[in-house]
Amino acid sequence: MAINEQVIFITGGARGIGLETAKALGARGAKLVLTDLDTPALDAAVEAIGADRCVGIVADVCDLPAMEAAVAAAVERFGRIDVVLANAGIASYGSVLTIDPATFQRTIDINIVGVFNTARASIPALEQSKGYLLVVSSLAAFAASPGLAAYNASKAGVEHFANALRLEVAHKGIAVGCAHMSWIDTPLVQDAKADLPTFKEMISKLPPPINRTTSVDACVKAFVKGIDKRARHVYCPGWVRGIGLNRNVMNSAVGARPILKLVPDLLPRMDAEVRALGRSTSARNVANDERSVAGGDQG
């Protein structure tokens, strides 16, 4: 089915990769359903794409009934869902001994439980359409970074979740893909660089090509192509595939050597920056969490 005939449901659709992918798909004629917590950003996204072909739903990926309600609203509005992009995710800062435990838990909840809730809620609709679900993982699933244990763990977790889900739903006619990206110039990476000078320094000192930041546009093109092809794997840039194929080498004593050289100097300074911030994630994520507690929902 051509993209212009499809209804595409995107979590975390109000900004970053989710928003820009939605715009690109909308430009090709798709109908969009976007979920997020940030109501003003969500409203702006709908306005940018066009309310005739896009609806925004405030829905918490950590809240299964909210996600089920969002899926029901999408089907009521457009009659079907053909593609789900499980994109919502956050990052957190600090070593295992420094990160706020509640922030560690929140990262796991959004990045793993949120994907589960998205899949659980949407599988019945995807079975009806013989649709496609694309789970957003990361290069972080293949190669760990100090100070990002929660993010690394969550992205490795959703990769294997996608692998298991693919086996469970293939006989229902549903295809499942998994996307792995390097550092993409999104608000997530921008916030981390702004909050932590050591984060930016760490990226710059990683061996090439891992030290390069990729444009959102390049990532969007990879996502749109993956959705169009119902791809089993989406990589951006293409070299990320090679890292995945060699993940055992990356995580061996030899592969870890370049990063291990940085840790004694860089990690204590990163932790000091986290303590000075008084938070273990971006200010935007803190604000979203406050909205969630106040009765709103996260996407």
Account of the 3D structure:
By secondary structure, this protein is an alpha/beta fold. The chain has one domain (3-288): NAD(P)-binding Rossmann-like Domain (Rossmann fold, 3-Layer(aba) Sandwich), CATH 3.40.50. 56% of the residues lie in helices and 12% in strands. The chain contains twelve helices and seven strands. It has helices spanning 16-27, 39-49, 64-78, 101-129, 149-169, 187-195, 197-205, 216-229, 240-245, 247-250, 253-277, 283-294; strands at 7-11, 31-36, 54-58, 83-86, 132-136, 175-181, 233-236. The chain has a seven-stranded parallel sheet, with helices on both faces. Strand 1, helix 1 and strand 2 form a beta-alpha-beta unit. The radius of gyration is 18 Å and the shape is globular. The two termini are 27 Å apart. The mean pLDDT is 96.
Supply the CATH architecture: 3-Layer(aba) Sandwich
Structural class: alpha/beta
If you average the pLDDT, what whole number results? 96
Number of discrete helical segments: 12
CATH class: Alpha Beta
- Order of SSEs: EHEHEHEHEHEHHHEHHHH
Fraction of helical residues: 55-70%
Please, what is the CATH homologous superfamily?
NAD(P)-binding Rossmann-like Domain
User: Unreliable runs, pLDDT <50, ≥5 residues?
Assistant: none
CATH topology: Rossmann fold
Q: Report, as a whole number of angstroms, the end-to-end distance.
A: 27 Å
Apparent shape: globular
Spatial order of strands in the largest sheet: 3-2-1-4-5-6-7
Q: What Rg is obtained from the alpha carbons, in whole angstroms?
A: 18 Å
Strand content: 5-15%
Q: What's the domain count?
A: 1
Biggest pleated-sheet summary: 7 strands, parallel
Beta strands, count:
7
